[in-house]
């Protein structure tokens, strides 16, 4: 399967959105662009907005992003439009902190402090404060947010496209890919020219501009630092972009 051959099932349009990382402001703007796009060119049938993971950390409003994703009608989301959100490595690290706080150094060093700030939880000053911080975050985290994070799937397949946060391990059948591969992999996947049996649409690795390869499309345009949040629009054999 090569990019130029890839198709979605007839009657389906997908807006795949890259890593948001706490930029609720950009998510609102991108949702507005999607609504305008739908008004200008209504889809022939089903429409799906698909988020590729990394909703939290680094940017200033992780709590606001999760509000928009798990309660779209109340908080600036796409009311009435089908959505699907996948698990990213940053959601996985947050869930691990909620389960076992003493292994949290990786999460805190990779933007977890911004998530704590967005829930008005004090960032721990020492190892001894980790348990207190975990308990405070569990109290501050709305039930809907916790349930949303706990229920995120790892991947989705539609037609000739596979959607996943980070990528897949080349040469391994899709049904044998591990959770770690799908949310963490980088160079082994990014450097591969293998035919994966589907075109992989992914985020996780920041690119200056959307990366179009024969076997994959990378759409993490570094929203939290660049201001560019990207949606890849797929319909039948068409591929185009919306971007803040």
Give a verbal description of the structure.
The protein has 244 residues and is α/β, with parallel strands linked by helices. Helix content is 34%, strand content 19%. The protein has a 5-stranded mixed β-sheet with strand order 3-2-1-9-10, covered by helices on one side. Helix 3 (89-99) crosses helix 4. The relative contact order is 0.20.
Keywords:
single chain; 244 residues; alpha/beta; five-stranded mixed beta sheet; 9 helices; 34% helix; globular
Order of helices and strands: EHEHEHHHHEEHHEEEHEE
Structural Rg: 18 Å
Which class of secondary structure composition applies to the elements?
Answer: alpha/beta
Question: Could you tell me the mean pLDDT?
Answer: 94
> What is the chains' assembly state?
single chain
Q: What's the layout of helices and strands?
A:
Layout: E1 12-17, H1 24-40, E2 46-51, H2 62-70, E3 82-85, H3 89-99, H4 105-118, H5 130-140, H6 143-150, E4 155-158, E5 161-164, H7 179-184, H8 187-190, E6 199-202, E7 211-213, E8 216-218, H9 223-226, E9 230-235, E10 238-243
Parallel strand pairs: 1-2, 2-3, 5-6, 6-8
Antiparallel strand pairs: 1-9, 4-5, 7-8, 9-10
């Amino acid at each position: 399967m090569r990019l130029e051959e890839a198709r979605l099932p007839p009657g389906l349009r997908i807006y795949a959105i890259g890593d948001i990382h706490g930029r609720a402001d950009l998510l609102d703007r991108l949702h507005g662009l999607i609504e305008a796009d739908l008004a200008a060119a209504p889809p022939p049938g089903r429409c799906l907005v698909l988020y590729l993971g990394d909703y939290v950390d680094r940017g200033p409003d992780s709590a606001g992003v999760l509000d928009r994703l798990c309660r779209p009608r109340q908080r600036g989301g796409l009311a009435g439009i089908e959505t699907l959100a996948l698990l990213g490595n940053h959601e996985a690290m947050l869930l691990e902190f909620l389960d076992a706080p003493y292994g949290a150094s990786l999460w805190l060093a990779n933007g977890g402090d911004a998530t704590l700030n967005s829930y008005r939880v004090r960032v721990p000053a020492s190892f001894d404060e980790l348990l207190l911080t975990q308990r405070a975050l569990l109290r501050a985290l709305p039930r809907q947010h916790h349930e949303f994070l706990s229920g995120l799937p790892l991947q989705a397949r539609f037609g000739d496209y596979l959607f996943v946060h980070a990528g897949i391990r080349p040469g391994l059948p899709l049904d044998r890919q591990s959770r770690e591969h799908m949310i963490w992999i980088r160079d082994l996947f990014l450097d591969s020219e293998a035919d994966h049996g589907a075109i992989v649409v992914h985020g996780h690795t920041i690119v200056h501009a959307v990366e179009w390869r024969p076997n994959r499309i990378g759409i993490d345009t570094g929203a939290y630092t660049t201001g560019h949040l990207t949606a890849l629009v797929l319909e039948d054999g068409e591929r185009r972009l919306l971007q803040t």
